[in-house]
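Researcher: Going back to the complex we discussed earlier. I've cleaned up the inputs and rechecked each line, so this should be the final set. Can you rerun the prediction on the complete assembly and write out the structure?
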Amino acid sequence: MWAYTLRRLIFFLPVLLIVSLLTFFATRLVPGEPALTFLGQQARIEEIEAWNRHHGLDRPLAVQYFDWLGGVLRGDPGESLAGGQNIGSELRARLPVTLMILLFSFGFTMVIGITFGVLAAVFQDSWLDHSVRLFAVFGQSIPPFYKLTLLMILPAIWWEYAPPFGYVPFWNDPLRALQQIIPPTLMLAIGGSATLMRITRTSLLDVLRADYVRTARSKGLKERSVVLRHAVRNALIPVLTIAGTLIAALMGGSLILENITSLPGLGQYTFNGVIQRDYNVIMTMVMYAAIVVMSAHLAVDLLYAVLDPRIRYR
Amino acid sequence: MARALTRRRMLGGALATGAGAFLAACGGDSGKSSGPAQGAATQAPAAGTGGSPQAAATEAPKPGGQLREATITQTPHFSPFHPGADPSFVNTWRRVNGYYEGQWTIKTAGPVGERLSLRLASSVEQPDETTYIVKLHPATYHNRAPANGRKVTAEDRVETAKFLMKPPASGGSFFQSGKDLKSVSAVDELTLRYETFGPRAFFYEAQNGAPGYIVPKEMLDEETLKRTIPVGQGPYEYKAHTQGSIEEAKRFDGYRLKPKPYIDEKKLTFMPDNVAVEAAFRANQIDAIDSESVQSVKQKDALLKDLGNRVVANTYPSTSGMALVVNINRKPWDDPRVREAIYRAIDVDRIINVVFFGDARRSWYYSPASTTRNPLSHDDVKQWVGFDQKKAADLLKASGIDLSKEYEFMVPVENQSWVDGGRLAAEDLAKVGLKTRVNPVVRNIYLQRAGPKPGDFDITMSVFLDYQYMKSKSGTFWDSTSLQDPEVDALVEKIEQTIDVKVRDNLWKDIQLMLARKYSNMMPMLSGNVHHLRYAYLKGLSPDHGFGNVSAGWQDERWLDKK
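Model: Rerun complete. Updated structure for the full complex:
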């Protein structure tokens, strides 16, 4: 298993290289001067040239790319074009916010999705099953930015309530931090949990009809034991595969969530970078996203073995 | 905000139960002091006035409290002289009512010649057309290390001005053209001498805002300014910040106008989403909401209706009108008959009624300054421009333009009213035979394509130009919106060199008439209103310093009348 993990980690390198190349040249293919974004509409030609020189954007593209790549390999992704801050420092400052959002939203997604998926399968065609399926349609059909916007504005209109704005680190004020985090992450989790619900329900229904489950029942095992010990565990393998892909979706959702709820995480940083055409920020954040997604997929692959001892990695 | 209203209409009520559950789960922190609004909505004051300054003037200001504001833009560094991500508001907040006090500010309203409001400058003399002697107030101090407690001197301003003369500092054309500001020197500890190469009309305007600030000379390099917390001499000093979220300021006890400022602390929260700003205002987490977030008269009316007499609305004429621009560097737009046809083809009143719900005025003038200075009326220009689609169709035919071709009509997608206005304008153009395809693009692309000469567009939109931004040979964004006509250019240069404000304003009227007569490629359409709401307990505003923005103008006069 260790050898397998090492091989997968080594495989990360060419993928990251390709991602970086694609991102670098894709951002440069957009015509025009990013300097205008930063210097404003009345910038003079000399100001634009000085700005480009200052940020090394007057050099050949290959030089710019390898300069950036060298910096990343040394652990220094460079400075933001917008403000000159060190991107590494920004990443470190903002990472806890995004991690907390991902942790909560992924946690809610898994708990809600699997719990209600299992209940829907066990109580197939009951009112609970129909309710869960209806909720799944609702959750999947409304995009996260809309749900989050409604979460902001409707309580404000009806009750003059809004979650407290202005980020507070969790350890400084846990209650306020939870007030800021729980409602939007719960809302963000609706879409993913709806998907998981449907997958869990379908997968579990398949397993519940399998021969070994019938055998377990015929042995006289309690239904609870049959479902939880024998069926659910095997039904979770496709669920886990989907859960791995949901990480990427939640990262995208986090970008929206952080902007709507004013939480200063990596999503907000990425969004600003894209809007401002901040090359260095875009490059770094795309690489960060690629690493997180690849790591999530690796983790899912490794978890298969935990769920199903028959799976072996060589 | 139209987006939020639409969503609200579409799904109003759908999430009531869910939202209630969140409230129950998470506890309340609304800061609300009462239930649903009682009573009728407060009437907005007349355009151009601000709340109840007269009432504020008769009340004794109460000291203390915290002013809470929000912004949808952020600047990721501390420098007042380097452009950031979207340099509009946070730096304004830091500069105008916070950390720095400039030499002077220019009021946006009031009689000609009375708009200069001295701040750190105690007097300004102009012995001849090219020399300015500026005396600074004595006993003014910088607020923090490394200049902690040190007097503000003329030498600080000299070094600041010299710093502004070199990019990447954002000093503007006056400091960096090499043709305007000749020298700046310290005559004594508190006296400055500015010399210009020739008469320069915009000496004061060029140093209004950031270029007029005085930064301690120890701070003057790019990296220090960006990374070190601001050191100034204004009413407030830096307290704390969380990047991308909050910035807090506290009163500077050494401020030269003690006991001002009246408000002890200020807190600015970065909220990039307009809906979040409205939600925060409704929940009384912020004390005011400005034109960045109140984007239509409908939204303003809804807030007034819901929040009742707890809030006050101010309405001001916008300084950034909506103008249609054709690319003079491309055919067929270099043909004045085609431009006249466009002037005459578009039913601007329809755009005002449909897109702006009637909350805008038809503009015949080319500059926001014209809203308060010598505005042009339709009578002034009706012999050249006016709505006449038959004449427009005839002109297009006479010009020989290829009417089978479809032209791109580029609009910045971030401004929904421009997109909607563009669509209606395109319909009108189609009625006279000119086919256009409205293409909304992101602001960045809009700037790239509409900015540098010769401009990569056929038709687009622009804000109005104030005359100090008109450049005859600038090569900037604005060049793509200028007519590039020798007669116009000569008048621009004459205006730039005319110091007398009244004469200059009259010249500006002349140039606007000339632009109308020549069918300028920047065609003024309308000027909307901007709306600003605040809780009634926020008092002491100085509306003649700015339009609409909660932080516009000099605001150490503000105070909170909270029980």
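Model: Worth noting: The domain at 92-307 of chain A is CATH 1.10.3720.10 (MetI-like fold).
Researcher: Good, that matches what I expected from the previous run.
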